[in-house]
Each structure stands twice: as C-alpha cells, then as structure tokens.
Design goal:
With 287 residues, the protein is an alpha+beta fold. The chain has two domains: 117 residues, D-amino Acid Aminotransferase, Chain A, domain 1; 162 residues, D-amino Acid Aminotransferase, Chain A, domain 2, CATH 3.20.10.10. It is 30% helix and 29% strand. The protein contains eight helices and 16 strands. The strands form two sheets. Strands 7, 8, 9, 10, 11, 12, 13, 14 and 15 form a nine-stranded mixed sheet that branches. A seven-stranded antiparallel sheet has the order 2-1-6-5-3-4-16. A hairpin with a 5-residue loop joins strand 8 and strand 9. Helix 6 packs across helix 8. The radius of gyration is 19 Å and the shape is globular. Bound molecules: N-(5'-phosphopyridoxyl)-D-alanine. The site of N-(5'-phosphopyridoxyl)-D-alanine has 15 residues, from helix 6 and strand 13.
Length: 287
C-alpha cells in the first residue's frame, strides 16, 4: 500500500513528497515539530501536543500555519490515508522558503507544514517493555533551550548512534554538574532509594514531555508521589527503578546503564503500574 504525506496544501505520495531546497527547516533547522502516538485509531494527548506546538512556535516567533481545527483535520486525513490504527503522526512547521540569510525573511513568508504518519506494531513495543532497554550516559552538549521542540537534533542523533554502537537503545544526557537531564528522545525517571518517583524539573534543560505530564496525572490517580528534582548519575545507578517516557513508547524500563545493572535487572513494579493505567488517563481523540 502506498504511503501518503501532506506537504504545504497537498496530499502526495510519500515517495514523491518534497520541500524546497531553500526551506529554512532544511537549511537552518529553523523549524519545530511534534510526534503524537496513535493507539486503537485514536490520537493520544492531542490537545497537549498542540498546546506545546503553539508554545514552540511562539518561542521562535513562527506564526501558526493555520487554525488548530484545520491542522487536526489534516492529521486525521493523513492517518486515514495511511490506514494507521496504531503508530504515530509527525508534524513539522518551518519558517518557510526564502533566499539563504540567517535573519528572518522580510517580508514574512508563509510557514511550511509537513505531516506524515506511520504504523508501528504494538507487539514490538510490548516486547521492548518486557525485556527493558540498555542505556549509556553521554555529556549533554546541546544548546540552552531544549525546552523548545525544534528539529535541531544533531546532538541527539549523535548520542543515539553512540548508544547503538555500544549495544544500547537510549543515550542519557548528563549536565556539567553530573546531573541527569533527559534521554536522547525521552524523559528520564527514577524510583529513588526511599521509593519516591523522581524526575528532573522541566526548566530550559529538558523538553517538557507530554508523556511526562500525563504520567504525573497517572501517578496522582494511583497515589504515587512524584518529586521534581535533579538527580545525579550515581543516584540513578543506585535507584530501585529507572525508566524513560516518550510519545511512541510511553514508558520503557531501563535495566542497564553503562554496562551496570539497575536493581535486579528486570522491569520494576512502578513502571508496570503506570504503563497499565496510562491510556485510561490520557486524552484520546478518534481519527
Ligand atoms: N521525542 N525529550 C526529548 C529530547 C524528546 O525528543 C522527546 C520526544 C521527549 C519526550 O516527549 P514526549 O513525551 O512529548 O514524546 C523528551 C519524540 C518522540 C521524537 O523526537 O521522536
């Protein structure tokens, strides 16, 4: 079955989808994006993702390409054309096409919008969840505004590749003080020695993950206390549980970091309880 994408006003075959060579997303990574999970023909946490998109656009001063209702219509249409029941929908907004010049185009040009979707097999994610994943730590060498979800992901790309070459599935960024910031494409959580669920405060040093926000609602519902504070690599290695969260995988236990086994080397109870309760709490928007 052919795949389809939406590019600047048109639904096109994925294989033929293209943007201009002077699109500022391509030239400068002058663009922001969102990834939403799709589960059982529903977009998960759509409102929160679109709120964050609005915030990202505002932070880098790109005018939204269209009203929210129209954007949701396109997301639905791309999902339907690709027959996605379980998977993800990706959207990217760039500052548009203009002759290469670092400053914003003047007069302003229209933002570019690309929407794609793909199916993902829930069984693959379940298998990953059951086994847990391995991770490596890497210095966090990213810019100071990673709270904005921009497509400027080169440090994340290099970190994930380093993880892969070390036989791991995620890289964990560590700041200059030796504290954990987040994963290459996930937020990080520990259950500390006292049994408290801990994650780093969402300042400018991490992306405020939508899964992270909804997980806090899930924890509240389950009566699990969440503490937002910094934690060191040493504390993480001694934790009772470590797990990562992100839109496509929800929550994945980390069972080994830099070759050291976490707790007993198996996924923990807290991650399990949260994963089991997650979709009942998350917002679901039918395709
Ligand atoms: N990544 N931190 C980073 C650096 C991320 O790239 C992501 C998401 C997250 C988790 O955010 P959320 O819960 O909203 O997905 C945290 C997406 C999935 C990606 O780039 O593919």
């Amino acid at each position: 079955m052919p795949r389809f994408a939406y590019v600047n006003g048109r639904y096109v075959r994925h294989a033929d989808a293209a943007v201009h060579i002077e699109d500022r997303g391509f030239v400068f990574a002058d663009a922001v994006y969102e990834v939403c999970q799709v589960r059982e023909r529903c977009i998960v946490d759509l409102s929160r993702h679109l709120d964050r998109l609005d915030r990202s656009l505002g932070e880098i001063r790109i005018r939204p390409p269209m009203p929210r209702a129209a954007l949701v219509g396109i997301m639905r249409e791309v999902l339907r054309r690709n027959r996605v029941a379980d998977g993800m929908v990706y959207l990217q907004v760039t500052r548009g096409v203009a002759r290469r010049d670092h400053v914003f185009p003047s007069p302003e040009v229209r933002a570019s919008l690309v929407v794609t979707a793909k199916s993902l097999d829930p069984a693959v994610s379940a298998a990953k969840y059951a086994a847990g994943i391995r991770a490596v730590t890497v210095p966090d060498n990213r810019w100071g505004r990673v709270d904005i979800k921009t497509v400027g992901l080169l440090p994340n790309v290099l970190a994930r590749q380093q993880a892969k070459e070390a036989g791991a599935q995620e890289a964990i960024f560590v700041d200059a003080e030796g504290n954990v910031t987040e994963g290459g494409a996930t937020n990080l959580w520990i259950v500390d020695r006292a049994g408290t669920l801990v994650t780093r405060p969402a300042d400018h040093a991490i992306l405020r993950g939508i899964t992270r926000t909804t997980l806090m609602d899930v924890a509240a519902k389950l009566g699990i206390l969440v503490e937002e504070r910094c934690f060191s690599v040493a504390e993480m290695l001694e934790a009772r549980e470590v797990f990562v969260t992100g839109a496509t995988t929800i929550c994945l236990p980390v069972v080994s970091i830099d070759g050291k086994t976490i707790a007993n080397g198996h996924p923990g109870m807290t991650a399990q309880k949260i994963r089991d309760a997650f979709f009942a709490v998350a917002e679901k928007t039918a395709i």
